[in-house]
Amino acid sequence: MSHPEPAPHPATSGRAATALRAITAALVLAALVSSTADAIRDGLLAQHVSYFTNQSNLLLAALLAVAALRPRDNLPDWFDEVRGAAAFYLVMTGIIYALLVAPLDELLRWDIGWTGIVLHRLAPLAALLEWLLTPRRRAPHPARVLRWQLYPVLFLALTWLRGAVTGWYPYAFLDPTASSWAQVMVTTAVVLVAFLAIAAIVHLLEGRLRGGVAAADDVVLAVSRAPRR
Questions:
Q1: Does residue 3 fall inside a structural domain?
Q2: How many angstroms separate the Cα of 37 from the Cα of each of 42, 49, 118, 159?
């Protein structure tokens, strides 16, 4: 009779998670460095750093690096709030890129350059999976859904202010010169409603894929540390 495979020890799964965070952070950072070097070469650095995609990816890389280098118990409670914000921003990055930015024929193609694949496809998926697989440390307050909106709203305001001065907008759907202010405001309203809805979903999904596994790991760890008789 075959015996079931033993469950992975918590320390083993923890090391694997740490390694994956470090690898993902390094890959995202490498993509950002490469795309930034291209922007500097083309004299487009100011425009490059103005993209929501690049800013949110930089935040993700920094958070994953910190999480890989420091034990989770040594991180402050607000770290999880920022980590959730990064997951939310990256999910929205992937959705907006697919629906409003990328040409329709690009969505099923993979010849878009490795940096595009990392920043627009891999990073949003990795951020969401990391959020789903990391168990909650405490019950979060629903108000964080609104706090997560502060950065997108600030980004929007600064984008329009900069555009009014320079005439350049990072995304066509935010550019009134490409259509009209009426069209831009309608699109923005729809996007903001989507931001609130996705933020609420991300808030509720925290640690959902690790709830049972985390509890089982805690039991195994407690038993392994129990004194022997």
A1: no
A2: 9, 12, 16, 23
Name the band, by pLDDT with cuts 50, 70 and 90, for residue 12: low
pLDDT tens, 56-94? 999 999 999 999 998 888 899 899 999 999 999 999 999
Domain region containing 168: 10-225
> What is the tally of structural domains in the chain?
1
Residues 6 or more apart in contact with residue 27 via CB below 8 angstroms: 118, 122
Structure tokens that stand for 145 in this block:
């859904």
Q: Is the dihedral of CA 61, 62, 67, 69 positive or negative?
A: positive
pTM over 0.70: yes
Q: Could you give the C-alpha distances from 188 to 80, 83, 120, 194, 205, in angstroms and in order?
A: 28, 25, 20, 10, 25
Report if residue 4 sits inside a domain: no
Query: 124, 94 in Cβ contact below 8 A?
Result: yes
Residue in this structure with the two tokens 């890959």, named with its chain if needed: 27
How far is residue 217's CA from residue 40's CA, in Å, rounded to a whole number? Answer: 47
Phi-psi category of residue 43: left, alpha or beta, with phi > 0 → left and psi -120 to 50 → alpha: left
Whether 2 is covered by a domain: the verdict is no
Note whether residue 67 is domain-resident: yes
For residue range 110-160, list pLDDT tens digits in order.
888 999 999 999 999 999 999 999 988 888 899 999 999 999 999 999 999
